[in-house]
Amino acid sequence: MIGVRRNRNKDSPYTAKTPLTRVELHVHLDGSLRHETIYELALKKGLRLPGSGSFQDLKNYLVVKTPENLGTFLSRFDIILASIESDLKALERSAYEAVEDAANAGVIYFEARFCPHILIPLEVRSEADDEARTKWVYDVTDALIKGLIRGQADFKSKGNLIATSIRGLPQHWYEDTLTLVADSSFHGGRIVGVDIAALPDTHDEKSMLEDVAVSFFDRATKLGIRRTIHAGESGGPSQVTGALDLLHAERIGHGYRIVNDPNVYNRIKDEKIHLECCPWSSILTGSIPASDVPHPIVRFFEDDFNVSVNTDDPTITGTRMEDEYRLLSNWGLSEAHYVKATFNAARSCFLPETEKADLIQDISKTYGFTQ
C-alpha cells in the first residue's frame, strides 16, 4: 500500500509524514521546477537574471501575483527552460524533485506534461538531421523518466509523463512525438498520453486545430494513445468542441469557457468528459476574471461534472494542491468536493486499468473507505 510517504532523503528539508490522497492530472513538469533549482542552474550557466540578479528578484519575477494574459504568464518559461535545456543531469534532478514535491503535497499519482523539443539544444530543434534531433528527444525523455523512477522509489509518489506538442510549430515535432510515445519498449509505459499546448508566441489557440494537429491526433487515436487537450482556457466553447470532435480528446485541460455555451456545457456534463481545472492559474492567466462569481469550477462541482483540481505550473502560480483547496474553500467548496475531485481524477487518469484499480484502492484505504 502507498498510503503514507516516509521521507528517505536525508538532505531534504521535509520531515513530516504526509498522507498520499491526491491525484493531479494537469501539471507541467517544466512549470514545476523549484525556484532554488532554477537559480542555482542559472548562476552555473551564467544566464541573465531579472532585477539585481538575486534569488529574491528571480522568485519575484517567476511567481505571478496579479492577473495577466496567457502570453505574458507563459513568458516566464524563457528563463525556466534556459536553465534546464539540453542539461540531462538537470532534467533528471528536476523530475526527481517534482516527485518529492508532489509527495509532500499529498499527491500519490500525477501525470506531468512535457515537450521534449523545447528541452533539446536550440541548434538541433530544426536540423535536417533527423537522427541527431531524435537522439536528443530520446535522451531528454530518458533523463526525465530516470528522475521519476528514482523519486518514486524514495517518496512513494508516482509520476508519469504526457508528451505535449506545441501549437503552430514544425511538423517534424509532431512526428518525433508520435514515434516517441508509440515506442513503449523505450519508455516502459511511463508516457501515458499526448497533449497540445502553447508557448508565448503560439498561445493563440486557433492554431490548435491546424491540419497537422488534426492528423497527429487522428494517428494517435488509431494507435490507442490516450489524449488530453488544452482547450477553453483563452479560447471559446467552440474550441472545446473542436478538441472533442477533431482531436478526439478524452480529457479537456481547463475548459472554463464552456459556461458561455449551454450546448457545449451540457455535452461535457452528459458525456462525463473529464475537466482538468486549475483554479488559481485560471485567474492569473486572465482566462477567468477574478470578479466572476461563481467561478466556473464551482458550477462544475454543483452540477456534478467529472472535474479535478490541479496546479498547472507551480513555479509560476506559487501554489501547491493545498493552496488550491484553500482558494476553493474561499469560494464555498469543502473537503467533500476535494475527495470527489481526487476520485474523479483517479478514474480519469491514463494508467492501465489494473494499475488504475490499484490506485483507487490505495486511496480508498488511506481515506478509510471500504470497497
Automatic annotation (TrEMBL):
Q: Which InterPro entries match?
A: A/AMP_deam_AS, A_deaminase_dom, Ado/ade_deaminase
Looking up PANTHER family in the UniProt record yields: ADENOSINE DEAMINASE
GO cellular component, alphabetical, reads: cytosol; external side of plasma membrane
User: Coiled-coil regions in this chain?
Assistant: none
* Annotated protein name in UniProt: Adenosine deaminase
**From the UniProt record, which GO molecular function terms apply?**
adenosine deaminase activity; metal ion binding
Q: Is the keyword Manganese assigned to this protein?
A: no
Specify the enzyme's EC class, one word: hydrolase
Membrane topology, record value: Peripheral membrane protein
According to its UniProt entry, this protein's organism is Allacma fusca
Determine the domain of life of the protein's source. Eukaryota
Q: What is its EC number?
A: 3.5.4.4
* GO BP of this protein: adenosine catabolic process; hypoxanthine salvage; inosine biosynthetic process; negative regulation of adenosine receptor signaling pathway; purine ribonucleoside monophosphate biosynthetic process
Family affiliation: Belongs to the metallo-dependent hydrolases superfamily. Adenosine and AMP deaminases family.
Q: Where is the Adenosine deaminase domain?
A: 22-365
Alphabetized PROSITE patterns for the sequence: A_DEAMINASE (PS00485)
Give yes or no: UniProt keyword Hydrolase. yes
